[in-house]
Write a structure and sequence with these properties.
Helices cover about 35% and strands about 30% of the residues. By secondary structure, the protein is an alpha/beta fold. The termini are far apart.
């Protein structure tokens, strides 16, 4: 069952991108209500016994053929895309076929019910393609842009549009150029820490309820809900507008999540149990992606802002292949071995 909030019509896609991508609507205007469907939902709908996928909100349904259709790509008659792009190579191929073969290829193209077709590279739109698009109510666009630019732009937009979104409690910030989500129990001091980090030149993405979506197999993108944009709640002061207080440079619209920092109160008994070499470094799954997590003990006298900066820098070193604890252990072993001989 599709979430109606994720439904995107071809008309909406055209309205959003026609200026940027130079799209001109050539034929099939009646198909503007066709719905572009998330790939996973279309695959499920095409399994035996699955519900049909709606082509229009509240309208008729069509059952797809074969395997699930990806969102956008160059002409593919075997594994079709929902939005088929025809560049110079594809048009030359179709027009070079014999009449019967061309009719078969076009018939196979429309048999899979593409939601839209785009003729790229500024090519003239073939008359037979206009006719078939009008007959099938399939939106047909043309664009002066190269096919690969259309493919990249639309794929990026649609991947973000349909990405699964989760909301996590905490403060999401850009610290030393990486996305860091600061979490911890209520009242532990997350917002105060964020305020100090902002005053040290780092940037706020979202306070309290940042939203995260997986836009690639290993990439989690974090952003701020519109209702919370620019605002930070600091206990004792109330709601502050970070942009108005610190300027535009203190705000970051979105950032990839690279590190989780959990603030946690600890007594002496728990502190002594922390690994002296590796610390509290572990991983946590966010949208099925393993994200490194560090627990920072909160005790009187600790400068949490400096600790978070250090954690971010140390994480950047680890991702580049340098592990301080391993290097330290190797050095100690090298010093011990001569004494053993």
């Amino acid at each position: 069952m599709l979430d109606t909030h994720t439904q995107l019509t071809v008309q909406s896609l055209f309205d959003i991108h026609h200026e940027k991508l130079g799209l001109e609507w050539i034929a099939g205007q009646q198909g503007g209500k066709h719905v572009i469907v998330p790939e996973e939902a279309r695959v499920q709908a095409q399994e035996p016994g699955a519900a049909e996928v709606p082509t229009e909100p509240g309208g008729e349904h069509k059952t797809g053929k074969g395997t699930g259709q990806s969102l956008v790509g160059y002409l593919n008659l075997i594994h079709p895309h929902q939005i088929q792009i025809l560049g110079s190579v594809e048009l030359n191929y179709i027009e070079g076929l014999r009449d019967i073969s061309r009719q078969d290829a076009i018939g196979q193209l429309f048999h899979h019910h593409p939601v839209a077709i785009i003729v790229a590279d500024g090519n003239a739109v073939p008359v037979f393609l206009k006719r078939r698009c009008n007959e099938n109510n399939t939106p047909l666009f043309s664009s002066p842009l190269p096919g690969h630019k259309l493919n990249d732009a639309l794929h990026y937009y649609l991947a973000n549009q349909f990405a699964e979104v989760v909301t996590m409690h905490g403060v999401f910030m850009e610290v030393t150029a990486i996305g860091v989500l600061i979490t911890g129990p209520s009242g532990i001091g997350k917002s105060e820490l964020a305020l100090e980090l902002i005053s040290r030149g780092h940037r706020l993405v979202a306070d309290d309820a940042p939203q995260f979506s997986r836009i690639a197999p290993e990439i989690i993108n974090g952003s701020c809900p519109p209702a919370l944009q620019d605002f930070l709640e600091v206990r004792g002061i109330g709601i502050i507008n970070v942009r108005e207080l610190f300027g535009d440079g203190a705000i970051k619209i979105n950032k990839y999540l690279r590190l989780l920092v959990r603030l946690e109160p600890m007594d002496k008994e728990r502190l002594v149990k922390i690994d002296r070499l590796e610390g509290t470094y572990k991983t946590r799954k966010v949208l099925d992606v393993e994200i490194p997590e560090i627990t920072v003990p909160v005790t009187p006298g600790r400068n949490l802002a400096v600790l978070v900066e250090c954690a971010a820098r140390n994480h950047m070193l680890r991702t580049s292949g340098y592990n301080a604890s391993e290097k330290f252990s190797e050095l100690q072993q090298a010093l011990i071995k001569p004494g053993e001989r």
